[in-house]
Amino acid sequence: MDIIEKIAKKSGVNMSLKRKIQYVYTISSAVVAFALVLGILLSIKGMSMLTDTLDNNDKALKLYKAVTKERNALKLYFEDEQAELPEQIDEVRNNTKDILGQIPADYSYMNEEQYIIIQSIHNIYDSYDNIYNSIVNSNLNDKDYRSAIDNCYKVQNYLEDYAKRYESITVSLGNEQYNSQKKLFYIIPVICIIIAFVVIILSIWIRLFMNRSIVKPILKLSDEARRISVNDYSGDDIIIEGDDEISLLIKEFTQMKHSTKNYIVTLKEKHKVEQQLEHMRFEMLKNQINPHFLFNTLNLIAGTAEIEDAVTTEKMINTLSRLFRYNLKTQTSIMPLEQEVKIMDDYMYLQQMRFGQRIKYMCDVDNSSLDELVPAFVLQPLIENAIIHGLSSLSEGGLIYVRGFKKDDKMWLSIADTGVGIEKDKLDSIRKYLDNIFALPDTETAASSENDSNYADSEINRKTVGVGIGNIAYRVKGMYNNSGMKIYSRKNHGTVIQIYFGNNSK
Q: What is the number of other CB atoms lying within 10 angstroms of the CB of residue 435?
């Protein structure tokens, strides 16, 4: 398993994982290929020798049988006057000639005795063929016919004897060759066993190499990643030697782990600061009561008490008390929309008592939306802005129209007025201001709300739409997903402010 590392150290090269795998593949393939080629060559040699021996023995036996069969056929034809076998005899003789043609007198693959015998068989068969043709094709008298037959029998006997000797010698030589090469047939199974053993050893080696270089590091990496996925950074760092891809991956992962851990610690600290700032901002908003409104309301109550029955005065006092109580005692940052609507109604009642018929008020909130949780003090500051900046300067007054509804899995709140509107330059600046708020990352929302002097405390925010709009924008952004605030306005036509946020709070 350490061969690859030793090769790398001797060469002075830091080998990549790809190069290591290539080396493993090359070495293992070379060893297996060598063993397979050796086994195949030995098998081919052994099978070739065995095939040649069996083929030679088969040809020798066929020759002997063919010669014997031809002799018997001719004897039957010559001695049995009733036998009419010319076609059969021709078939037998052609078979003998074919077999002889397959055993040429070739000294290159025969020993001396085999060569002499097979050469003799060819010569004798040529003589026998001439004698046979003279018997069959010539009109011989009885004496010459009988003499020819006798010569034919003698030649056939010679052929049979030589064929028998050739078979015996061929079989004997084949046995000698087999006995001399018999060890080769024992070697082939041994070679196969060695090949199998080599393959097993290589498989184990490759498995150990892959397990050490790839599998174990990946498993450790997977376990560490699984712990990190549940925010558990207590595991020990993975230590691995080398400079291949796996080693670099683990080193980068370890570095990322520490960076993420440090980032989470920093994020938690920022979150604590954000919560503290949110609480401070909320408390500031709760304590934000317009002194002019309080002064004018109290004067109105005093004047009304002089000229009217106590019923109206009581209602105004009770309304103002509820408003003060809500401001001073509310401790949570979210409220049901129904509660916000009630406080908004109380506020508008007091404002209408102050401005009379100059200020008209309409509220259209879906009953299905009354139970939705919305940021506390989200409506009253925006209505106050509409009155102060939009309607108070108009002698004829105007209308404030509040809507609340759900659309596309979002809660929408809309505050519209028919006031003086906003100049285009100021409107563009306010929109930019709101876009910047909702473009901030969640972790920066709170800090920006306190530190961004260009927007949160700008003259635009204070003089154009009031202090409350920036506070509300930051709170909505920090509390809800998929949130936003839009503003539309035309000079001398009025202003519309829309707030939307998802159902799931952060």
A: 13
With b meaning 16 or more CB within 10 Å and e meaning fewer, what string describes 179-200?
Answer: eeeeebeebbeebeeebeebee
Query: What distance in Å separates the CA atoms of residue 227 and residue 36, rounded to the nearest whole number?
Result: 48
pLDDT on residue 6? 54
DSSP code at position 416: E
Parts of the chain with a pLDDT under 50: 1, 4, 7-13, 446-466
What domains sit in the chain, N to C, each tagged with a CATH number? Answer: 3-219 (no CATH), 270-502 (3.30.565.10)
Angle at 34 between CA 30 and CA 40, to 5 degrees: 140
Confidence at residue 460, expressed as pLDDT on a 0 to 100 scale: 46
User: ∠294-298-302 over CA atoms, to 5°?
Assistant: 170
Kindly state the DSSP code that residue 378 receives in the 8-state scheme. Answer: S
Taking a C-beta distance cutoff of 8 angstroms, is the pair 114, 170 a contact? Answer: yes
Length of the chain (residues): 506
In DSSP terms, which residues pair with 373 in a beta bridge? Answer: 336
> What is the pTM (predicted TM-score) of this model?
0.42
Helix (H, G, I), strand (E, B), or coil: what is residue 337?
A: helix
Burial 148-157 (b: 16+ CB within 10 A, else e): bbeebeebbe
Mapping DSSP to helix (H, G, I), strand (E, B) and coil, where does residue 244 land? coil
Is 114:173 a contact under the CB 8 Å cutoff? yes
